[in-house]
Every structure is written in C-alpha cells, then in structure tokens.
Write a structure and sequence with these properties.
Order of helices and strands: HEEEHEEEHEHEHE
Radius of gyration: 22 Å
CATH superfamily of one domain: Rhodanese-like domain
Largest sheet: 5 strands, parallel
Helix content: 25-40%
CATH class of one domain: Alpha Beta
Length: 198
C-alpha cells in the first residue's frame, strides 16, 4: 500500500492540471512537427519513402489537389515531377525485352528524375539548374511547383534545391501524383529528361 501511495504522490507532482498548458520549455518529441517529420537543416539523405515535413522553409506547401488545380489554371507556372525513372530489373536475362510502365503525371509536367536525391553529382546539379532556367526563361520569380509521390522526400529535396538556386516562388505539392489522381483529375503520360552521366 505504501508503494502505491508513493507512486501516486510522484505522479500527482508530475501531472499537468486538466486544461493547463505544458511548461513553455517543454520540448516536443524528437522529430515531431504537427504530425509531420521535422525539417532537416540540409537535404534529406535518409529513406526516401518515409514521413515528410508539413513545411518547406523558403517555399510554400500546396495543401491539396484542388488548390493546385486552381493555381495551375492561373497559368505561367512551371510544374516539375521529380519521381525516379524506372530501372531495368537486375535479375532480367540480358537481351530480354523490357518495357517500363507508362509514367502518369500532372498534365504539363516536366519530368526530371534524379534531381531530388539528398546528394547529387555535380553533373545532375548542373542539369537541374539548366532545365529550370530553360523552363522559366531564367526568371527567378516564375512560380515553380515541384512534386513526386506522397510521403516521398524527393520533391522536398528538389524544392529546397530550387530555393537554393535563387527561385523566389517555389511551391511543394506534398500529396504528389497520388493526391492528384485521388481527386479525380486527369493525368498525362510523359517521358523523362535524364541528366547526362559524368
């Protein structure tokens, strides 16, 4: 009985009264950010398909497909899909025919695979800069919407990278192609523009 009484006494001393706020210096759980991952200080180099932040420092998060569609209808926006390109399966017999599935994207998208990895080669970085410059006519204020898949860091990294290049109006569509499709909007089949090796 005494052990239970002591335990209750300790718990009551630690408890926050009902309706009261936690102390101002109470830290949130590690990595917590309103049910999203915390933004890393640099590019994300961990697992690509894992919980992503709700925010993008220096950019704007587009919350849903309806908002994105409305935004795109205004015109003048460059939309970039940074999903990975399909790769030939390693266990396929040499010379066996391989036809990757068609890549469905938001209509009007520019597909630039490889630019959203946490660490990219100089050649890929140069390629990304050049493709964005060409697509925006070198106007750093031109709106850029960057997306890939839901819960995928590739688009967050690519959006952060575009901000580092000096683009002022970078938008990250967090829900990716899955969010667009689930809203019932049409897609288009597109081909990748791949960075030269080197």
């Amino acid at each position: 009985m005494r052990a239970i009484a002591r335990t209750l006494l300790v718990l009551s001393a630690l408890a926050v009264p009902l309706g009261a706020s936690p102390p101002a210096d109470a830290a949130p759980p590690p990595g917590a950010h309103n049910n999203g991952a915390a933004e890393p200080s640099g590019y994300w180099t961990g697992a690509i398909n894992s919980p992503v932040p709700l925010t993008l420092s220096g950019g704007t998060v587009i919350k849903n497909a309806h908002d994105l569609r409305k935004f795109l209808r205004q015109g003048g926006t460059v939309i970039v899909d940074v999903s990975n390109a399909p790769r030939r399966p390693e266990n396929m017999a040499p010379g066996a025919p391989w036809l990757p599935l068609p890549h469905h994207a938001i209509p009007g998208s520019l597909w630039l695979p490889g630019v959203g990895l946490g660490e990219i080669p100089v050649a890929v970085d140069d390629f990304y800069r050049q493709r964005l410059a060409a697509a925006t006519n070198e106007h750093l204020a031109r709106p850029l919407v960057i997306y890939c898949h839901k819960s995928c860091w590739l688009s967050w990294n690519a959006a952060k990278r575009a901000i580092s290049y000096g683009y002022h109006n970078v938008y990250w569509y967090r829900d990716g192609i899955e969010g667009w499709k689930s809203a019932g909007y049409k897609t288009a089949v597109i081909e990748p523009q791949v960075a030269p090796e080197g």
